[in-house]
Amino acid sequence: MGGHHKPTITVTDDESIRLNPAWQSVRLVAMAVGVLALLLAMGIGMTQESSSYFFHSYLTSFVYFLSISLGALFFVPIHHLTRAGWSVVVRRVAELLSQNLIPMAILFLVILFPMLFGSHTLFEWNDPAKWNVDSPQYDELIAHKSGYLNSIFFTIRAIIYFGTWICIARYFYLNSLEQDGNGDKQITLKLQKWSALAIVLFALTVTFASFDWLMSLDPHWFSTIFGVYFFAGSALSFFAFITVVLFLLQQDGKMVNIITKEHYHDLGKYTFGFTLFWGYIAFSQFLLIWYANIPEETGWYLRRQENGWATVAILLIFGHFFIPFFGVMSRHVRRNKYLLTGWAVFILIMHYVDLYYIVMPQVAHGTAAPSFGLIDVCCIVGIGGLYISSLIWFATDKPLVPVKDPRLSESLALQNH
Amino acid sequence: MSQEANNSEPKLLGLMAQFDDPDSLLAACEKVRKAGYTKTDAYTPFPLHGIDEALGIKPTILPWIVLTLGIIGGFTGLGLQYVTNADWYPFIISAKPVWSLPANIPVIFELVILHAAIAVFIGMLFLNKLPTFSNPLFRVPEFARATDDKFFLTIDATDEKYKPNKTRELLDGLLGQTDVIEVFHDPTPAELPKIIKFVGIGAAVVALIPPILLWRALYQTSTVPRINPIRDMDIQLRGDTQTKSPVFADGRTMRPRIPGTVARGEWVDPIMLTGIVPEAGEQNVLFLQDEVPPAEDEEKPAEEEKPADDQPAEDKPEAEEPADQEPMADAKAAEGDPAEENPVEGEAPAQPEEPEPNWVKIAPINVTNATLERGRNRYNIYCSVCHGLAGDGDGLVSQRALQMEQPTWIPPTNLHTDYLLIQPDGKLYNTITHGIRKMKGYGDQIPAEDRWAIVTYVRALQKTRTGTPEEIPAVEMKELEIKGQ
User: Fold this and answer.
1) In terms of C-beta density within 10 A (0-12 exposed, 13-18 middle, 19 or more buried), how is residue B5 classed?
2) Which stretches are transmembrane (chain A) (predicted)?
3) A168: closest CA among A209, A196, A207?
4) What is the model's pLDDT at position B291?
5) Contact yes or no for A329 and B67 at CB 8 A
6) Which residue of A123, A361, B155, B423 sits 20 to 30 Å from the alpha carbon of B308, by its own alpha carbon?
7) Which residue ranges in chain A fall short of pLDDT 50?
């Protein structure tokens, strides 16, 4: 890198890189609204004949916000692993987003507890009658899978997933904060070393978590690529979400000269790439199942082409792939933070549609038609409110840029070609 | 390097300024751009951020080339599959529709990627004006340090703003520390050295040898098996004739027909196939199967029981009698009132109790000149070796056998005998199909249509002996008379 005669740029740790105190009131409001919305959703769900709709809708919103944090958890180690320079100024926000895996673990109890007490409205395989040969509901496939799909092992796995994720998130975050204080370059090397293991653990846990929480909604169905499909959506929604967060921070007068259009350009490249990746993986999954035409596999897609779900599927093809693909293809769009943020919001909406398409056709074990309603809105607002509230809580009183990262000046001087 | 060495004055290409550090280069670039020069370029040992803006270099149009080619690639993939799968070779594969978009997307995707990748590569070379083998700048000795520690800025002499002294002053005055170097056109002639020409021609001639050898091989025979680098077309996992298949338990490579079924598109009218008019209500397709030939059942016992009886009865007298005009009259009469009487006469000793099937009286095909020609052709191939070209039972095989006095040889039937003249066409057809006595059945070798053609041809042969002058059309009679005279 010789020849750059630019002086080393540093960031002073002052108010310009710390959250505006005004957000504290937003935090309280978001939390209150979130709790109320969740209680309302639960109330409506319980008064109806079947609580199935509520649980599915809750799971959709839960996985939606979880996936954003998982994308962040992917972003942080991968950038240590590749010794990326450009991403330093946006990395703290990603670290903060990954901290939200802690409240997500608590929100997961709403799904876990009923199941431990024998509820099988969400996970059909938790019904003991399905395993019992003498029962009229006996389901041979579910019975064969019961060694893996049972509430105890499910709980153990969930603990492993959240444990791993929170450990990784905390480790990278706390070390990064420590570096803010002492500027120790050894910390960067240490994080680099552990990031390889973190990525491997991330890949395994996310794959199996997506199998457990989304794929097993239809216990007959299986798709080996499903973990990658879920990951593609997660990473994409993370890049969209962090773009929105950075945009809001800049609108608030923070990090104005630190995050440049070069950084938006790079985030836009990721958004573009993962849009294509999502389309590629989603189609790969569909094509193999469509071509092989095996009943257990095609049933899942068949359910999503009936009762009006075909419209949602077509909406995904265009809204989740073709339109944003051409939308963020242009360099001009990627370097304009207003346009890019607009596309990020569009992609975040489409990511919700994607998860809705995965989860909601399974309502009442696969007889539902699409019916977006008050419960869904309450679940999004509820979990979203708690998510944002906890994000603000984590971000309070911390520099939003790793101020003593050895690669910070490289990141500040970033120029794209 | 060589200004003095040249007699003719070398053409000045432009001016080049040398700088010691990137910042002064960037500053100089800014000034040169602001002075209005457009044909400029900068050379640095490493990528320099901001140089594009400083020089005013426009963003590349490469992305647009890539996008265009990518879209063309997508439509190529789509069109290719439509034309081949849905139009030219509509083939149903694993029950998918011939035109099925999901199955086409991978190829479309790959062709988009392929076209885009090629567009990037070729477009990059094209936009960079590559390959260029030599550049006049390389002749400037100072320029060697452009890959090391010096920074250069050039202004082309063809620039609109270029004026020899003014430009030089501008460059001199930039920072005071620049060295301005004049770049001249390459003085050496542009012609290739002769040795390279000869080597090139020689190489071209040598390169012609392999195609000539290939071309020669196309028109020559060889006892050596040909070289087969890609063997998968010749050696395939399929059942060949006379091989055992590991796939099926019975070891057959081809599956036998299921009894009682007719394959789609293979239905043939039973009359056409058997020569028998089925009795009312008889809709049994079993007799269509090769395994169960009903007519043969009637013949075979007869063959074994009394061959001795039959042969003398039929062959000997007929061989003696050179059937003439009298049987013809009989035959005509007999054809009118048909098979009920005559076959009984003929085979009465064989099976008195078993009634003859209801033979078709006249061949159920359109008799045209083409049919007769076809019949003659097939007759000459299959029948004439025994029965003779004229149907007299004196084919070459028979003549030879008689010459050699083969004890078991039974002379073939003379087709002009009375008995055969009055036989219904169906019976004749049946004999060709399943054989009779020592004669083998030809049903397996000759398709049904051709067998009927042979029947009509045999009838024509018989007519040559039984026809009367009145039956010949007047026009042809005249021709014959002329020929006869």
Assistant:
1) exposed
2) 28-47, 53-76, 97-117, 152-173, 194-215, 221-249, 270-292, 308-326, 338-359, 371-394
3) A196
4) 43
5) yes
6) B423
7) 1-5
* Max Cα distance, chain B (Å): 134
Of A3, A293, A417, Cβ closest to residue B46: A3
ipTM, 2 decimals?
0.77
Q: What is the DSSP letter of B251?
A: -
Which residue matches tokens 């057809």? B429
Q: Please report, for chain A, the start and end positions of each structural domain, with discontinuous segments joined by +.
A: 15-412
Cβ separation B96–A283 shorter than 8 A: no
pLDDT (0 to 100) of residue B485: 64
Give the span between the Cα atoms of B308 and A95, in whole angstroms.
107
Question: Could you give the angle at the alpha carbon of B352 between the alpha carbons of B347 and B354, nearest 5°?
Answer: 95
Q: Answer yes or no: are the C-beta atoms of B423 and B417 closer than 8 Å.
A: no
Instruction: Assign 3-state DSSP to chain A and report helix, strand, coil percentages, each to 5.
Output: 75, 0, 25
**What residue has token string 């890959």?**
B147
Of B49, B59, B102, nearest to A415 by CB-CB distance is B49
- Report d(CA B189, CA B187) in Å as an integer: 6
Compute the distance between CA of residue A235 and CA of residue A238 in angstroms, rounded to an integer.
Answer: 5
For A240, the token pair is 């969209």
Q: Say yes or no for a CB contact (<8 Å) between A413 and B49.
A: yes
Distance CA B356, CA B343 (A): 7
Domains identified in chain B and CATH numbers: 10-194 (no CATH), 271-294+313-337+355-485 (1.10.760.10)
Could you tell me if residue B242 is left (phi over 0), alpha (psi between -120 and 50 degrees) or otherwise beta?
A: left
- Identify the band that residue B75 occupies on the pLDDT scale cut at 50, 70 and 90: very high
Subunit contact A283:B48, Cβ cutoff 8 A: no
- What element of type H or E holds B183? strand B179-184
Q: Is-contact A60 A355, C-beta < 8 A?
A: yes
Q: What per-residue confidence (pLDDT) applies to B292?
A: 41
Collapsed DSSP state (helix, strand, coil) of residue B243:
coil
For residue B293, the model assigns a pLDDT of 44
Terminal C-alpha separation, chain A: 16
β-sheet bridge partners, residue B12 = B184
pLDDT tens track for A57-103: 999 999 999 999 999 999 999 999 999 989 999 999 999 999 999 99
Query: Contacts of residue B48 in chain A, CB cutoff 8 Å?
Result: 3
Between B350 and B146, name the one with better pLDDT. B146
Angle at A223 between CA A221 and CA A226, to 5 degrees: 120
pTM tops 0.80: no
Lay out the sheet containing B151-156: strands in order across: B40-43, B151-156, B12-19, B179-184
